[in-house]
């Protein structure tokens, strides 16, 4: 591997114009494909294998012309203090609004609160329901304008009017997002390298990779069903790993130049050594992302595929475009001191002692050395402290409740949140999460009697406060019933209620011959949460298992991959605990701008596991490969840990800060779920890079000593050798012109 990538780096440096023109051509081709591609499809909410989805499909089949998941507006009216909505003037304004909205071309129906008994007991609050024939994304501007104008007229009449539902859903502010991440990344790179060119090169190549990836995803979006969400995730990950991978290669290039190598050979060595770590780190990310397909959710599968493609592009850019650009400006990326000091021409390989003296002149490396020396002197206390600390942070995750936050999690500045609060105050907390029950009475002897029996069963269920009249289809063999719980949509009691209703299905079917299914937004969120929870263990097994095999191949060890997997679980557990603490329990919620706490997004645990596992392995491969490289070339285990930190600790720290900046930028948006994703990923990267990789990993390696690199002989013979440490490059360096004495020739050496 190292020899092959050495040749790739050498070729890219020498043929730099060809490489750059090739990437420009690729960029032009994908942009041309993107410009001629059809519009990206909407995000698919399909969740195969769950009852709620089956019920939605049945409604769409038996009630043609009105999709079960079509847009809906729930218009809430609140009378002024001391008045009632049934007063003549207020009633007239409400009826006028309903009549105006009902004439819309995309409207399937509009119900008056006075015809459906949708008035609170104290007559202070009422609501009208408007259903549409299309989904919210397909609503025309004219339909939205008709609704907003009617609402404004009712407000002018003296009523407080708020609109919930999906028809006029408010877009949350996007925040600074990627712009903030790029800005912080630039500052971190500038501090790390002390050179504008060295800081700008990883940013430039990362942006190149992101542009190629996004344009490519757009070009094939229609054929593969990639939605805009796929592109957003690919952009976030592509930017983060693209900067990191280029950072690793540039950092190694500067190190090789400081050790006296000429620019072309330094670029080739950087590609052969750091490039090998980039390849295997990228493969672990790809494994984690493609592993999302085992969950069985089409949306997650597509997000994984698109993001994996962006990571692969980032790897290719780091291995080819970075050496090529270094060929144009070979000295620009060096620090000012190195540029002024000139280049040293090597006359022989540096011995371990001379390498140490050279590296120790750099204060950044010295800080990493001092920390590593502290850890290897006190490995057990450091290990216990890191495990206990992360374990304590993970404790709140035992209280994890999964769901999909709705309008209750939005800011009080939005009309959806105000409508939610008004309905909860006027009709009870469960009114915002009605359950939709679809009764399939085709096989019943008397469909109407069967539907009536189901309605009676629902009305008598503890926890149900009201049941709507059944609405039949044209064939009169299927009916839809709405049941309102007494508890909030995200409460445990509502979840138990759904399971209770479904548990009574067998008795109802035996008595009536009809079957029914429970759906609606509340039931859908419960089903999705259960599906994600059931898929988490198989997903972990697939991802961790495949990554374990890959890391065993890279490090030729059994204990090192086990240590990597355990450390990852610690960091993910701590991140989940932090998410639960802030977004579910509310501790520190105000600091992060979270207006309302609630359940954790159902896809968050698997999403966090998949992405963070891949990113954590970046640091694992880059850091531990340098430690193993030093050990293979003759250093004792504890000294090898110090040497590995000397060359990589500051780079890993900079890479982690960049990732945290990219992910943390998403916390500036207005959407609670986006804040949750940004907070979760940023905190997981922090725990993994600065606690697990900087404390847990060196402590474990120091305690294990040579046992860390143990591999059964029979397995060692079976596994192919990938040479990530560049042993082959060291052997190639032993040429007749090397003026190395006999003693040095017998001592294991390496090219740094």
- Give the count of helical stretches: 26
Give the helix/strand class.
Answer: alpha+beta
* Fraction of helical residues: 55-70%
Strand count: 11
Which band does the percent of strand residues land in? 5-15%
Radius of gyration: 31 Å
End-to-end C-alpha gap: 17 Å
Mean pLDDT: 81
Which of globular, elongated, flat, extended, rod-shaped describes the shape? Answer: elongated
Which spans of ≥5 residues are poorly predicted at pLDDT below 50? 343-362, 734-752
Major β-sheet profile? 5 strands, antiparallel
Keywords:
5-stranded antiparallel β-sheet; 26 helices; 4-stranded antiparallel β-sheet; 752 residues; alpha+beta
How would you describe this protein?
By secondary structure, the protein is an alpha+beta fold. It is built from 26 helices and eleven strands. The strands form three sheets. Strands 6, 7, 8, 9 and 10 form a five-stranded antiparallel sheet that branches. The relative contact order is 0.12. Residues 343-362 and 734-752 have low confidence and may be disordered.
Topology:
Elements: H1 2-14, H2 16-36, H3 51-62, E1 72-78, H4 88-102, E2 107-111, E3 125-132, H5 141-156, E4 160-165, H6 177-193, H7 196-224, H8 228-258, H9 263-290, H10 298-328, H11 336-341, H12 352-359, H13 363-377, H14 379-394, E5 402-403, H15 415-427, E6 435-440, H16 447-459, E7 464-467, E8 471-472, E9 478-485, H17 492-503, H18 505-512, E10 515-519, H19 521-555, H20 559-584, E11 600-601, H21 604-632, H22 637-664, H23 672-704, H24 713-718, H25 727-733, H26 742-746
Parallel strand pairs: 5-11
Antiparallel strand pairs: 1-3, 1-4, 2-3, 6-9, 6-10, 7-9, 8-9
Helix pairs in contact: 1-2, 1-9, 1-10, 2-7, 2-10, 4-5, 6-7, 6-8, 6-22, 7-8, 7-10, 8-9, 8-10, 8-22, 9-10, 9-19, 9-21, 13-22, 13-23, 14-20, 14-23, 19-20, 19-21, 20-21, 20-23, 21-22, 21-23, 22-23
